[in-house]
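Appendix B, Record 12. Input sequence as logged:
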Amino acid sequence: MVEIIILPTPAEVGRVAAAKIASVVAKKPSAVIGVATGSSPQGIYADLQRRVDAGEISFAEARAFALDEYVGIPLEHPESYASVIQRDVIDPLGFEPSRVRVPDGRASDLEFAAKEYDAAIRAAGGVDVQILGIGANGHIGFNEPTSSFASRTRIKTLAPSTREANARFFDSLDQVPTHCMTQGLGTILEARELVLVAQGSSKADAVAAAVEGPLSSFVPGSALQLHEHATVVVDEEAAVGLKLADYYTYTYANKPAWQLFE
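Logged structural output:
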């Protein structure tokens, strides 16, 4: 089942999730990391940067693949995910830029570019650990409700609620692209480990539906229930909808030392 870790604060969410990522890199310096954008993983990147600056870990040999990219947005736009990954991941964590890939939402043949992206992930040996956030409507990556659990990297139309949520990064809602290229749920599920983070009460319904609700394409995040090694790290506000919250807290507090990753 999905391992659910409930922590007091967003800062603790970032620290513990970062410890999970760091443990993978410590064992395999050439690890392939799946990186996400948005506000949810910012705490992870901040804590990983602290570890890099302290000389605890290095991403110099690691590779990374981003989850998604807007279609049609200029590469140099500050909110293109290529720009965001450069700013939030490559520069602060010391990745070699040539070893980090973002889907090409500007390709002349988007369908071919999507298939080539999946092929590149396979050629790299697959993703060792994938970082995920979750949208208020349950999407992971940009796999909006009704996405197939077998879907591959492809073009998707963004839901109005997703565009509205992302409008805070742009000057107006009209500037938010309507389409994206995203890793599919099937692509995401091929990663060896998944780490999803969520903070705040606005994500509580989505978290509960994803980890305690039925498997449903209406809640793309519920696909995590199909994965052998999925970890969901949330703060107390994002956990308010979980029926078994007390049990998850108890199991984490009593986790055997050999299972800990920090």
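Residues 10-27 form the longest helix (18 residues).
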